[in-house]
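Posted in: Protein Modeling Q&A

I'm a second-year student putting together a small comparison for a lab meeting, and my supervisor asked me to include a predicted structure for asparagine synthetase domain-containing protein 1. I've never done this before, so apologies if this is the wrong subforum. The sequence is pasted below exactly as I got it from our records. If anyone can share the structure token output, I'd also love a short note on what stands out.
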Amino acid sequence: MCGIALIVSGIRIDLSPSTLFQSSQSRAISYSFRNIGELQFIGATLQLRGLNPIIQPFVDSYGNVLIYNGEIFGGIHVLALLLDMGCNSVPNVFSTIKGPWAIIYWQESSRTLWFGRDAFGRRSLVVHWPTVKDSRFLLSSVSPFSSVYQSSDFEVENGTHHNFWEELSCGIYSLSMDASKLHGYLAGEVKKHEWGHPASSDIVTFESGPDQTMVSLPAHNVLSALRKSVILRASQYRIFEAVRCYSRQEEHVPVAVLFSGGLDSMILSALLDECLDPSYGIDLLNVSFDGQSAPDRISAKAGVKELRRIAPLRRWKLVEIDSDLSKLTLEMKHVMSLINPANTYMDLNIGVALWLAASGDGWVSERPGNNSDEDQQRLRYKSEARIVLVGSGADEQCAGYGRHRTKYRCGSWHGLNEEMKLDVQRIWKRNMGRDDRCIADNGKEARFPFLDEDVIKVLLDIPLWEVTNLDQPSGTGDKKILREVARMLGLHEAAVLPKRAIQFGSRIARESNRNVFGSNRAANQASAGSVVINRS
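Accepted answer (user: helix_wrangler)
Welcome! Here is the predicted structure, written out as tokens:
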């Protein structure tokens, strides 16, 4: 996977109240301060574009060091601007990046360490803040595998258990090194900075546009923004070493979709077809823990038929990834390390489903000649796509969750708006870090078109009653604007599908509930989704 890490030792750090992975293309750089303190930078690159490998960390002639995990879809040339600007301008530079990012940057001139992640946490970055037991300051794209099973993974302070790792809250931080010694250590203070760009601040706070009554053709605006978002994440893809791996270009599949056959994944698939070179195939990755009977498998089969109807020349492959939860003992332990510091059974169920889906290792059905579906042959297949489009963010922005309907009924439009704002502002902690780690572990990069900055801005400029109508039943009024987008794309069947989360659609939650709690009824009584995993 692509990832970054930093180890800071021998430095006394004050936390302001405002406040490792494997790759053949990785290396580490250490900075020592007269044997008092040390900063160790580690970077690994998942090569997606270009013919020449890129090695991290980046180091210039001035002694500045940059390690970066993410994509820049627009905005700025990061390294050049960082070299030319003073300390106060670094937050401005980070704030103008369009795309997912996690950054660690040492600025030699000011002896300052800068670090952070984008406003929605689309790239993972976990942190260990110094404690009495372990005084190191650590940043990493993942928590080490072994730490989940060692007592060091949990620390006790004042009788309270603390996870060794925690998700770094989205934002931009600095750690300035004080040259003066303090009891044999260098002193450093961590500060969290405001976003330096006004547009970033509006998106982070999920504030609606100033004049929402003047928006015309809202669904067309959303479709246009989503189309541009998918183009940025797909058509600019440059094949790396494709000639070596494939004898014919038409066999290559550069981009896949995490696919349930539901509204969000159907929209992404149809837009990907519009944006991707017609010579490429598209893999639709579908995971099931109940064979052909899982709801997501049923909707996926119906969905691929609809996609073939609107885009008959595209080579669509529905990759059926079947699994049995009872046979995943080692895999479950591995995924537990990936979701860490998330620690509930719901996190584990979602993590396992995403991890298996992203592997792309399953079956495809092929029809000899023009024979009927009954004559299909099922063949082993592993998707080699290294980019996976994921529908995260659609429900949060378009009122797709059941709790949104509850808030609307209890608190009208204001209550709904506040709940949706809360969902977007905490998506980094609830979803994104966990999902990024589980998908990246397969050597794949997750890309989230619904969380594109311009898509978010377009949706914020549209009156909420144009986005959703929760007076209407499920499958009609919820995510109303996305249902209109689906119809504009010719996806009339997908446009009326109800929301279904991956843990329920794949039926991993049902199997997990039976294994852990004995039955679904017992699991519901125990509020299984929020129960912390028993690691004993």
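A couple of things worth pointing out for your meeting: Residues 16-25, 237-247 have pLDDT under 50 and may be disordered. DSSP finds 18 helices and 22 strands in the chain.
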